[in-house]
Specification:
23 strands, alpha/beta, 6-stranded mixed β-sheet, Protein-Tyrosine Phosphatase, Chain A, 7-stranded mixed β-sheet, Rossmann fold
Length: 451
Amino acid sequence: MHIHILGICGTFMGGLALLARERGFTVSGSDANVYPPMSDQLAAAGIDVMQGYFAEHLQPAPDMVVMGNAMSRGNPAVEYVLNQGLPYISGPQWLAENILVNRWVLAVSGTHGKTTTSSMLAWILEYAGMQPGFLIGGVPGNFGQSAAIGNTPFFVIEADEYDTAFFDKRSKFVHYRPRTLVINNLEFDHADIFADLAAIQTQFHHLIRTVPAEGLVITPCGVPAIEQALERGCWTPRQTLDGIEADWQLTEMAEDGHCFTVQYQQHSAQVNWSLLGKHNVNNALAAIASAHHVGVTVEHACEALNQFKGVKRRLELRGERHGIKVYDDFAHHPTAIATTLQGLRANIGNQRLIAVLEPRSNTMKMGVHEQTLAASLEAADKVILYQDPQLTWSLDSIQQQLGDTSVLHRSIDDVVAQLVSQSKSGDHIVVMSNGGFGGIHQKILDALDND
């Protein structure tokens, strides 16, 4: 059977393509933005990827067209599919019907930490010999790819609340029917499709309705937005994380999060790893609790995390030149920005921390976080803001709130030039964007090389 995927280079749809190919489908796809790392993964899997959205990409007609949620009416390929009456389906529905059937789905949801927690969980299960399948919106260092079918019933999925497709406005995660569900946190995000937090909570309520009574819901303690969603109905046992009355406790933790001890009932074990920040400790606790639900001991899970290699674009060290370290971080929300910078600050002490920010998520591009963005950058000694020409609001107000510690540029070359002229050995440069940022990471490293 031949499927053609529209929007194949997105992290979700690219992962879906890898799963389909592994399952034996003939797979092709189209995308307007064909670039690494997903394009490299697809090429390595022998999947034909075509640039742009043209009718001829769908000739001869595939057996099924799988629509990415970036597709909209007016797209030439979408219009051709509808006019020709070609069979089509959303990515999440195709996944549910072809991959997740009869699987024990472990779903990780929440505003922040989904990719990292899913990666941790998949690795813990792999380390325990459970050979899970997984589909993750990033590339876990321990696997080197974003998706795999696996050889057992267990399947780990990053459960996104974003909408499914132009013809299905439910959140993706309502298709997954998890038996183990993590809700890491819950804040307002995705202002392009949700009017307010209550609208997001409604989708989480729909998700909770799909978890069986013999399953498990795992949440942190005392998060009002999560508690409100659960109060609308929960028919599944629940375990809580990191609170005075929580089922899962943190009994010790280094300030920067590089070492911590987990306690569950009479079981206790320590993690000593390379990741930083309280947010990653929280992610780890959720992953350990989820793995325990399918039979992995606390001790074994902590052993696995000692060997966890992180995820690409999550405070990923891209290189070091003349004692200056350059990191790439997939910043999409003020809370994530703040926790990432605070974790690095706790680790590096008084060494200089320079944050380079491009507001790139749909919500940040709309200016929704204008009042909280400056505060999220407080852990940095210096902030360089990049005003993309496509940004519809001015970053001047953020720069003014930050004062002398910040500067605003409208050219990537100017950002690089300032970093090269002012950086010195011992500095840590964190580039924060959930887009490609014009390849700025390598441009900084190259410029430092030539300085």
